């Protein structure tokens, strides 16, 4: 068999993976969408603090995740770690849950692209282009980029991500500059404010904003320096996302004032951040922020598509999907067949929503990301438990210390609590959309299917090589 059928080309550096991870989180979209909704429905001015708490929990998770990385050789991320720590059947269940999560995230991101681009074209150019047409075009562009060599996607995402980071920094600098007139205080980070209102809803929206950060591990086989490159990228991405979200949302709170930001969000949460730009920056930056929402959605779609394709690639190698999907392109070294598979599946789902005339924001995006948030919280909790179990079983061989086990234990408990909070507030995230409120049942169904397909004779232990 040709070498290209086995080993992807090691072409990715830490910055490439960093951009993939941060772009998957879509910083501008997270602040404009999740941050504003968390402010309105959650803890008001305490939303910046909620971002820091979510980031702290995920950093604890990432510490164990990275420490176990040298002992996990598969590119399957969550499922590979769970299989290593808890056995093959648990790993098989996690594999299909992870694949479900990433597929629905692609669907939601495509719908978001259609929604935000429709608004931008209407307000800037006076064009009324249906979100349905835009979403179809987004699927085509994403499919082409995913089909080609992975560094093409990384470079494109780096450009788009840099622009949206710059525009949010402009807002922060304008608000926090001396003489701006903004009501700047540390109220947003005080415990009384952070845990006020509906903290469960706030932490849910904060957690949704980090979706996809662990996807760094999926690129381990394509990284220049293997797990070391992935570890650097993962820790850097979590730190950056947490701090950047908190500062960006703090600037929005300060723009309106801690006592008035909730009321401002109630007027229209979708324009809260744009109005903050309007208050403290020239009008060009409002338009730029609206335009970059489109590129943010596109960047997220590309990154999530790439992550989903690599799950398909990994599962095909584990014989949990047809083996042919694990082939790599002879010239580009990309997982072209896995990418095409993701394009077809997500395209059919989006087409179903289009034919059903669904609302792209309140139905497609909300329902899909609500399901994804729950699935990833569960997967992260189980992964952290797997890390803890693995080091308890092989602690002497790996040289792990009691502190490492303590961190993994705390991470497991915190992530389990977040999963419970997300499930209890799921209707808030989806907008109580009837049958879609039962979407969480897809997670246990996927888990059962994955465990069954893992079956006797599969690799159950995933022992380190």
Automatic annotation (TrEMBL):
GO CC annotation terms, alphabetical: plasma membrane
Bilayer-spanning residue ranges: 17-37, 49-66, 86-109, 129-147, 156-177, 189-213, 234-256, 276-304, 337-355, 367-391, 403-426, 438-455
UniProt-listed Pfam families: AA_permease_2 (PF13520)
Localization terms from the record: Cell membrane
Main location: membrane
Single GO term (MF): transmembrane transporter activity
Membrane topology: Multi-pass membrane protein
Domain of life: Bacteria
InterPro entries: AA/rel_permease1, APC_superfamily
Keywords: Cell membrane, Membrane, Plasmid, Transmembrane, Transmembrane helix
Protein name as annotated: Amino acid transporter
Lineage, top ranks: Bacteria, Pseudomonadati, Pseudomonadota, Alphaproteobacteria, Rhodobacterales
